[in-house]
Specification:
Oligomer: single chain
Largest sheet: 7 strands, mixed
CATH topology: Rossmann fold
Region (Disordered): 1-20
Helix content: 25-40%
Number of strands: 7
Radius of gyration: 18 Å
Order of helices and strands: HHEHEHEHHEHEHEE
Strand content: 5-15%
InterPro entries: Methyltransf_16, SAM-dependent_MTases_sf
Bound molecules: S-adenosylmethionine
Biased composition (Basic residues): 1-12
Pfam family, one: Methyltransf_16
Distance between the termini: 35 Å
Number of helices: 8
Length: 283
């Protein structure tokens, strides 16, 4: 189905700018979901990988709003994060296009010293992304999808593992960490996405490595970040991206006003936080 038809089918009509009022309450995940749902880039036939998917909002919204072929939501098993993500994926299987969503375990710490995809036998996708004109449906579509999206949060869970309190039972295809790793490293990802992933040194130092190991020269990484939450980690993260050969540029969302200039990192005690989407690709 053409993207525009798909959009109409789900009742989209408003222009993108309408969401301006909500920007202060919007998390990084909403901003990226909104950007990906409205950008001219076309995702038809694309393989999209989400790192640190959390409760699954971003990946599930993208599945609903685009024509991607595969959207793989990944999480670490630690703390029950992957189980929560899988629970929400299963709860939303009734949504259109949710069949393209799968989940995998991906703990960044496991990728720090392992082989890269270029060392593995990568099977090329027979068809790449189709470049078609993308619809511009505005935030109404995202709002609609978030209204029907059922995200179960930690404090409201009723399904539990035996013995473990408050961790949902996994009902997705749990193929195991190694099988998941093989799948992740042998799939050619057109896009890698993520939001608010840098809040400790694992994120700032290992995430660039994981990105490098899972991307190909043509992969586009779209990472949405809340700047100035942890200035020192921001600095470290961008240094590590640079070290790993990535080019980083902030994406301008045409429906938003030009963001104010950011103070240089570590110069203000309480700098104003702001959300920024970065387009990251190999040099
Ligand atoms: C602040 S949350 C953001 C979640 C989601 N992206 C969002 O915006 O709602 C950070 C996420 O990174 C994940 N994470 C942290 N360390 C990780 C690691 N070593 N491997 C994989 N995921 C990790 C956490 O489990 C958590 O879901």
């Amino acid at each position: 189905m053409h993207a525009r038809t798909h959009a109409r089918k789900h009742g989209a009509s408003k222009p993108a700018g309408a969401h301006l009022q909500r920007k202060n309450t919007c998390h990084a995940r909403c901003r990226l979901a909104e950007y990906l749902s409205n950008t001219e880039e076309n995702f038809a036939g694309c393989n999209i990988l989400e790192l640190g998917a959390g409760l699954g909002y971003l990946g599930l919204t993208i599945a609903r709003n685009t024509l991607a072929s595969l959207i793989c939501l990944t999480e670490q098993a630690e703390g029950g994060a992957l189980s929560w993500c899988r629970l929400n994926v299963e709860k939303n299987r009734h949504l259109p296009n949710s069949g393209v969503v799968r989940t995998c375990e991906c703990d960044w710490r496991d990728y720090a010293s392992r082989s890269t995809p270029s060392e593995l036998d990568i099977q090329n996708k027979p068809e790449g992304c189709h470049k078609e004109q993308r619809f511009s449906t505005g935030c109404q579509r995202q709002q609609e999808s978030s209204q029907t999206l059922q995200i179960q949060e930690h404090n409201s869970c009723i399904q539990t593992h035996q013995g473990a309190t408050n961790t949902p039972r996994c009902r997705d295809t749990c193929s195991g960490k190694e099988a998941d790793r093989l799948f992740l490293t042998s799939t050619k990802w057109d896009y890698i996405i993520g939001s608010d992933l840098v809040y400790n040194s694992v994120g700032s130092t290992l995430l660039p490595l994981v990105m490098k190991k899972l991307c190909s020269p043509t992969t586009v990484i779209l990472y949405c970040h809340t700047k100035h939450r942890f200035d020192h980690l921001d600095v470290e993260f961008f240094e590590h991206l640079n070290k790993n050969g990535f080019n980083v540029e902030e994406v301008r969302e045409p429906w938003l006003p030009t963001p104010p200039p950011s103070p240089p990192p570590l110069t203000e005690l309480f700098p104003e936080q702001r959300i920024a989407i970065y387009r990251i690709s190999l040099n």
